[in-house]
Amino acid sequence: MHGEERGMNGVLATLRAELEPCGFDLLHPFRIGAYNDRASPSLALDDLGSRDHLAIVVGNTRALWPVWLAALAADRALAANPEPLDAYTERTLQAALGSLRARAAVRFAHETGVRTPAIQRVAHAAGLAYLSETHMSVHPTYGPWIALRAVVTVAVAGPPDAAAPMAQPCGDCASHCRPAFERALATIAGAPSEANARAHWREWLACRDACPVGREHRYSEAQIHYHYCRRLVLPKAD
After folding, report:
1. Considering the domain boundaries, does residue 103 fall inside one?
2. Which of 56, 93, 177, 198 has minimal Cβ neighbours within 10 Å of its Cβ?
3. How does pLDDT run across 117-160, given as a tens digit for each residue?
4. Environment class of residue 111 by beta-carbon count within 10 Å: exposed (0-12), middle (13-18) or buried (19+)?
5. Phi first, then psi: what are they for 151, rounded to 5°?
6. Which residues contact 82 (CB under 8 A, 6 or more apart)?
7. Are 88 and 78 in contact (CB under 8 A)?
């Protein structure tokens, strides 16, 4: 029952009930100190007064896409927002946290400035996704076909033990994604930029496609195009 959770398991059950129907199907708990103890002060996360508090990495697989499209179709204000996916993420997570009795804090992956979380490092330390040498977060099941959206801290006790060190899900990058990564890097002239990444998005997509893990969970072409080009291309109605 929402708002009546007790401890970590209750918090996770409440958040899953709120978030999974909205497309955020990856929730991975860890103890905040397991990350903060190894992070530089500038990258430390809110611990709400204790290194033993619960933290949760929130993300999604391709399951988010149809749910988000339905939300856009039903909400003109959301569809008109210049960053509709970020806005949807914020309002959904804030509403879910409002269902908790415990104090909570959230840092969104899309935040900038001093609040920008090192979300890939957090996910790696938590045991959710391996941070590869080609700078992709690789989930043991879904491979690189995930998105990391936020990290939440809740003022209840987290897992007693730190996550076991992650093994590289695909064995090594040298025989898979590294050659594609080097080709993508070669497209950068001068300092990396968003414009350059969009202009050469197919080369960057090839890095993900080269990963042997999770190929059956690949995003749809429309979802891929949106994430790389920030343009929403919907199928034409019959």
Report:
1. yes
2. 198
3. 999 999 999 999 999 999 999 999 999 999 999 999 999 999 98
4. middle
5. -130, 130
6. none
7. yes
